[in-house]
Design goal:
The protein has helices at residues 2-39, 42-73, 77-110, 117-143, 146-154, 156-176, 181-213. The chain is an all-alpha fold and 232 residues long. It has one domain (2-213): Phosphate transport system protein phou homolog 2, domain 2 (Methane Monooxygenase Hydroxylase, Chain G, domain 1, Up-down Bundle), CATH 1.20.58.
């Protein structure tokens, strides 16, 4: 029996370790995609696009191992929540990677257009905020810190407010100078992708809270009151 329990713990710890590696890769992809935009770095943008395949592979591996563990070990209570949470968190991290890849693709196009420095700086500031949120929730995951996870969840509105401000700024530029429309349109999609990464960080905070406490965060997420367009 002791051998079986030890093998089970090793499998669960292995999934957790893979999830930590996946979190580090996702965080790096997001940060590098933003840097590629800010520095007009096509080499860095291309590397983000290529590296996303590794995240996809890790997500599939975590899902496969978690399903196998549930089927063979039949975990209950805390262990079951931990296993299911690992699958859900890996899915959110994989989506962060996809969004970072989308940003990197936009970076390749933006690098060929005329610089719109003030707007790029706004995107960079929003990117730094989103990267911080992702880092904070991954740190909470590593340390199993419920309070830190709740803090990330409570700050979700800040990312929304940045997006709303950038949206208005981009519209002003496009109306004032039609020559900026192409670059601004791409930056608008970048801002929306960043806003979605922020949402995934908040998702992870909710999942972690439930995993550790067994209680769902049932309150409505703090959101910006500004009307956001739904077509992007």
């Amino acid at each position: 029996m002791e051998h079986t329990v030890r093998a089970y713990d090793e499998e669960l710890d292995g999934i957790t370790a893979e999830l930590a590696r996946m979190g580090g890769l996702a965080e790096a992809e997001v940060a590098d995609s933003i840097r590629a935009i800010a520095k007009r770095d096509v080499v860095l943008a291309s590397s983000v696009i290529v590296r996303d395949e590794r995240l996809d592979g890790l997500e599939m591996d975590i899902e496969r191992k978690a399903v196998r563990l549930i089927a063979l070990r039949q975990p209950v209570a805390d262990d079951l929540r931990r296993t299911v949470a690992a699958m859900k968190i890996s899915m959110n991290l994989e989506r962060c990677g996809d969004l970072a890849k989308n940003i990197a693709k936009r970076a390749l196009v933006i690098a060929e257009s005329e610089p719109v420095t003030p707007l790029t700086s706004s995107i960079e500031r929003m990117g730094e905020l989103v990267t911080t949120r992702l880092k904070d929730v991954l740190d909470a995951l590593a340390s199993r810190d419920v309070e830190r996870a709740i803090t990330v969840w409570e700050q979700d509105h800040e990312v929304d407010e940045h997006y709303d401000a950038i949206f208005r700024e981009l519209l002003t530029y496009m109306m004032g100078d039609p020559r900026t429309i192409t670059a601004c349109a791409h930056l608008l999609f970048v801002a929306k992708n960043l806003e979605r990464i922020g949402d995934h960080a908040t998702n992870i905070a909710e999942i972690l809270h439930y995993e550790i406490t067994g209680v769902e965060l049932t309150d409505e997420r703090p959101k910006s009151d500004a009307l956001q367009p739904q077509s992007l």
